[in-house]
Amino acid sequence: MRKFQDEVRSALLLYAIVPVVLITVICLLLAALYWQRNVAAHTEEEVRATGAIFTELTQDYEERAAAIAAGGLDGFHADGNGRSAAMERVYAQLNRYGSQLHFFLLDVERHVLFSTEQEVPPYLLPPSMHWGVLSRMERQEGSVAEFVPNGAQDWDYVVGQAVRYAPSTGDATSTIEGYVVFVLPARELGQHLQTGEKLHIVITDRAERAPFVTMPTLRDSAFQKIVPALDSRTGLVSVDGQHYYAASEVLDGGFTIYAFFPLGSRIAQFATGAAILLGVFLLMLPLIVVSVRRETCDKTQAVSEIVDAFRAVRHGDLQRRLVIRSDNEFEEIAAAYNRMAESLVRLMRENEEEARAGVISELRQLESQFNPHFLFNTLENIKFMTKLAPDDAVRMISALSTLLRYSIDNRVRQVTLAEDLCHLERYIEIQRLRFGARFSYREEMEEGAETCLVPKLFLQPVVENAIHYGADAEGNIEIVSRMTMEAEQLHIVIEDRGLGMDAETLHRLRTMMAEGENRSVHTGLYNIDRRIRLLYGVEYGVKISCPPSGGTRVEMVLPIRRSGGEENAACADCRG
Q1: So where are the chain's domains?
Q2: Cβ–Cβ under 8 Å, residues 74 and 37
Q3: pTM, full prediction
């Protein structure tokens, strides 16, 4: 138990340190809230919004390309009205939202049939070769969307599909007759994505190239160095000594969008604030501890003396006297303690003999309650056995006489476990004659337990209770007794395989033994528990439980005490 001085010191330290800790925690929570709302959540929201715009833009181009390709290229090879109709169909798709697009319509030889631009990107020009974006449109059904290099540093975002012609002769094989291509330069893509001034966007393709960046330092070579740090989709990265919070989202088509939020001086600000808080805390802590220690030592000296005196009383020392000159309430407490100690010594002397006589009287009363109980039951059994099996009745009478001699012998109150088991066997013999094959009893005893001292005649009432209440649904009675030693304690477990107790009965028995007062007609288990507590102390006694497997389990815990080799005369009677 801690001293009062420690309690006071702890309380003062608590009241002094808690405000500092609370301020620190509040600052950290505010910093975390700022980080979550203004950095993490903002960056993740921007990357989702940018991904949605990029996906919508791609789908729009794909829909327009599919609509134009569905009309075929026959109109562009015709004259007059046929060509005009084909041009109107293309213009209807190009001007659907009033936007200006970079559009190219090519024949199979990659000659331009129609375009919105005077200059054609080199990757769309002949000669026809089996590589490049147009070749991938030939090999893939539907649209193709990818970034294509246009020069040393520039990239174009290309969305398009091949125009296929299926002959009417029933041949399922289609032929390529041209290409529908939308081109969006990477420098114009940023205008569609509406990226903020502070936020930097990087789009990578399936080859993990970075064709679209809004920050020059994040070109392919620099970006590839930080990709491993982004495996978790979010996190802190460093580029050229600058720190960023990054978030990413994977889109269809193998594209991945990364958003980089520049932290700038924010990390330095957080670190400075944390260092200041830590410095204040470390500076105040020793000052608080020293001040509190000095004040509490002087103010709690009297309490320490009083506590030491009561601790001595707890260990049985009633001769110590307190001398306190504090001119306050502690001086009155010391005087009251001295009077109490003197009174306790006097009362203990006066009541010692009376208490000893009371315990002996209660023990004798508890012991005497066993005799009429099992005598009545056994005589009832003998009455019936004399009519049904006279020879068995004679054996029952012989066993009963041995039990009676053992129970009325008042010379000893404790016997060895072997002696009590010896006389318990007489009771078991009576029950075997009574129940026949329906009764089964066996013992398991650890070597050395037989010499332990136990209260006389304390196993028989427990076994009798198991016989009375432990029958199963078919009327069979199976009882097992186990005696083991553990941690200087003797554990005796007697359990049956019957139907067990209901929860209310089990609770009532436990409450009765815990309160030490029997208000019912059930005396067997209560008397055993009471005798053990009176003889050995309240830390020992009887424990009752009903295992899930069924039946009732009674465990008796006693201290291990040896007989010293002396044998009671009753044991000889039992063997005889």
Answers
A1: 302-361, 369-575
A2: no
A3: 0.47
